[in-house]
Structures are given as C-alpha cells and as structure tokens.
Protein: Protein RER1
Amino acid sequence: MESGSGGVGIDAATSSPPPWVVSQWSSSVSRRFQHLLDKSTPYMIGRWAAFMTLALVYGLRVYLIQGFYLVSYGLGIYILNLLIAFLSPQVDPEVQDLVDGPTLPTRGSDEFRPFVRRLPEFKFWYSVMKAFSIAFLMTFFVVFDVPVFWPILLFYWLMLFVLTMKRQIKHMIKYRYVPFSFGKQV
Structure:
C-alpha cells in the first residue's frame, strides 16, 4: 500500500521506505565519504594527528573503565599484522629468488629501485583508523568486556612483538632493503 500523494511511496504495513531509496541514500553517503578520504590523502601529518588523537581517546577510555583488555589485545594483534605488511616489500625477495633471481639491488652500482610496500601508507592509516574506531565502539557494549588477567596478555603481546620485529629486521638486513626513504634518492 502506497501513499496517494504522488511522492515517495512508503509501505503502510511496515512503515519502511522502498529498497531503492535506501540503496540510493547509502550510495550517496559512500560517495561523500570516499570524496573526503580522497581529499585527505595529501595531508599525511593531519591524518596521523587524527589517528593519534583517536588512539589517545581509546587508551584513556580503556584506562578509566579498567576493562576491555581482550578487545585491546585483539586490536594490538591486528595492528602488529598491519605493521608487518607495512614494513614488507610488495614482492618478497625470498620467493622472488627462487623464481628468477634477486630483484633488490645487491651492490652500490646497481640501479636504484624505490621500495614498494605490500601495504601502502594510506591504506595502513585507514585500516588502523577503522580498527581503533571499531574497538572504541566495542567499549560501549558490556558483552565485549570479558574479564581477563591483563598482565599476561600484555606480556604475551610484547613477546610476540619482539619476536616478530626481530624476524622482520633480520629479513631486512638479509635482503638489504630499508622500508623508509627520506629525501630524494638518485
């Protein structure tokens, strides 16, 4: 049953708009959000400042509530996974060596090839922002506040971080790549 006013029809039985209206609205919101993301791309310092603010607010909330340690642990594991992808080359030299020989320069006289990350900086920032936003929203629901002994989780995460970074640094030394470049290389 639709209204006879000639406007957008609403089903009287369910009082909900037709599916095409919802689809059109979500498409419009998605386009606007993507436009804002595209405009924020060149402002790296501002984006990371926004992230630091969100991370500080999240940390402060968890500290003041004295809970949601399991959510924070899951967030830490996810961020560690993103960090490894951010520090890794797009083409892994170990796999590439097996296929067709080394791809990264091995001598100073080799041609300079810029480091290409497996996870670009903008996608790293966007993923971390989404993760912190979701974790922050989870702190408003008691069902996610699972009681755990947080020092064990912290110790386990620190050990995981140290071992993972040690392996990543050994990989960087073995294949002679640095994931950061300051200034213009020639």
About this structure: The helical segments are 19-40, 44-65, 69-87, 93-100, 121-138, 150-174. The CA atoms of residues 24 and 127 lie 26 Å apart. The chain has two domains: 1-40, 43-174.
